[in-house]
Input
Amino acid sequence: MWISSFKLIWRQTKYTYLLLLFIGVAGSWLCYFTYPGEEGVRGFLGMEDTPFMEIFFGDILDSLNSGDPGLYLYFVLLYFMAYAAILFPFIGLWLGGAGISEEIQSSMSDIFFASPQKKHNLLHRHLIIHAILLTLVVSVLYIQIHIFFELTGSSFNYSRILNAFAILWVSSIFFFSISFLISTLTVRNDIGRGVAGLVLLGGYLIQMLISFNPSLSDLKYLNPLFYTETTSSLLLGDPIQSEIIIPLVISISFLALTVIIFRIRDPLPLDLNIKRRFRNKIGNENKFKSETKDGIIYTLLKRISPITAEQWAADKLIFLIFFGLSIFSILSIIGGFPQGEEGMNQLVTLYQNNPIAKSIMRDHNDLITSDSLGAIYPQFYGYSWIYFFFLVIIAAGRIITRDLDGKTLDLIMGCPINSQRKIFYRVIAIILQVTFIAAFMIISLIGGEIILGIQSKIPEQLLAILVISFVYLSLLTCMIAIGIAIPKPRFRKPVIYGFAGITIIFSILPYFSKDLLLLQYFSLLYYLDLVGLVAYSYSFEYLNHLFVLVGVFAISVLFIWNRSEKSIHAW
Amino acid sequence: MELNNNFVIELENLTKYYGKYRGIENLSLQIKKGTIYGFLGPNGAGKTTTLRCLLGILHPNSGNISVFGEKIDRWEANIDLKEKIGYLPGEFELYRHFTVKQILDYFESLRKRPAVLREKLITELDLDESRSVSQLSKGNKQKVGLVQALMHNPDLVILDEPTSGLDPLIQHRLYLILKELRKSGRTIFFSSHNLSEVQKIADEVAIIKDGFLVSHDRIADLSLKVQQKLNITTKIPIPATICESPLINRYDQIYSMNGDHRYQIWLHRQNQNLSKVFGLLEEFQLLDVALPESSVEEYFIQYYSENKEEHRDVDK
Output
């Protein structure tokens, strides 16, 4: 049975583990390619006082200024303290939500319960197999990092890296246990993942709060990330701190609690499990009445079109996630704003040496030195496209395949409304979503700038945010057109994701080598020079860029319009 | 509860609430060894709740369950009994990442009992083991569910709407398989809202409505309980006042043409004395009388179109 179970769980979650492996391996090589040299690392270390840096690195950087600012230090700072410190808890909470709730939702658990297996075996199986798979992935990453250091000729401290991975393993198990408990309790994996995600986000917010106001430092004991930080072990060579026992004990308790709850209660959503509480008061009602109410926006959208309202409701969660990311982005940019001339210079050093940063800056490095505002613009407008870009990919993928995946295609095609209208009304919903995000960004960014005492160039920023929205729309329609052009529905998503990957790579590669300059013209992101747009105001160069975007948008819309008339599968 | 070894399943006053909502209430059933027992009811009546409580998937609020003569307080303590049970859930999704073969291997691995009927069922239900689950139609997924439920030749087969999504040919083959299992002494308990299939294959039937068991009978006895119906043709039209008679429940006029008046008349279930009815109708000059055969379907519709309380009284 174990082999079958192992096969089953591996098949269910193999893409998550392979993605974890890929991101883990890619991350180390990203560190190598973005290594800004000793000078750049010194610049990086010099930004220690910004609250954003303190979120990930805490006070540890103080003691390292005199240390060796080589690849090892850069790797440890970037890979373990920022990259993997986010990746491992996230993978933990994702996997925790993937197990039992999906089995119950699909009624596969019923067949298991009807077989001669003890009920809690279903849980044990998931727990043990995930722990084994996670350990395997960590081992592979450890070996890979060993090889990475051998190949790059850098020094490698086996025991420190091993300690760091052990801590990260505990971190992922901790978030796994929260997500596992909540999703088993509610039979909803999104709720489990959401709660664990809030705990993770709460941890970062506590770190940020403390960095703004050090008198709140006692709050750090409430932060799970405090107990699983790898800094002292990696940089100072300290053994694993005894505090690690706290998240470990909490994880074991949560897992034990999950097993107990799972054994004694029915595999039903939480509200249906509250036994008999209202039974006598209400009086034996048999019908399950819906008590949910439509939201205000949903109700208003229904008046425009039910299709728009449905699209709004379908993407609500994704929209909320990106809304949350925007808040986090704004907070972190304001928190990371370098104070004074020295901080600004260190940021310039970092930007001038790091190819990724260069690709975001578009070689507008003189901008930073000319005006202190230059620091906030490239960071905010440079990075914001990452969120939007992923929002575009997800939204495009969903618009194309949602009805096929959810098997609602036939239902929709049976209604007396043509395909063009459906796309049109769905795109309206997405435009509204992005308008909401853009409006929020305008309000919070300008609010943040008022707090920081910088209020110039607000009109340019408004324009830039509007351009983001338009670029978003161009990308979205372009991806929908590409998706529709693919005849086989199952290849649509991979092609869209592949296109997205090429777009990113083509926009970054030229900053590694000038020989590849031509490639950037094939990436829509090249036409998204928001840093230049904000910093130098509106100019003819950006007008050209806008023409390209308008052209892409128009061609895509015409293509979608034309194709959706011909085939129902275009939808 | 006094246990009887002749019964494979005994449910006594089983009650299950979902929070404030009633699933089933005071449901009692006894299913004999070697029978096919149909469990009829409309959507949301409590059929699946009963089956899930029986298997310990849901914990009943009260009541007793016994399976194979053993009282079940906790299924964990009687887990080996499940070796003898095969179960098909009502609505289910299969693991998408598997092929049919792999998913059947998986379910086979959950039991010690060998899957002796696997090949036979695959052939009879016309299932392709090499296909990926993600490519299966609803009917083919149902076939996979049926094979996993029956392949270890269980002593007790519990099927929740087994013919859902199956074409008539495969439905027919399934009926043959179930009848064959009954011949070899297996017990089959299946829920359905397909009345004709219950009539075709079941030996006994229970009807559930709004969580209450409203009737349980042998199929052969059912027609006796059905309201007697008459198709008559008279020369003189029948007035509506005839329903005031204690013999006649209601009537419908089918047509009235060239002095012929055709009616369908339902008699009161408590008072089905035909000679008295003919006496009553004689004054309208009877031209033709027919007594159509009553089916389970009529019995079922009758129950569901009438007041629940009335039926409980009738059953008493």
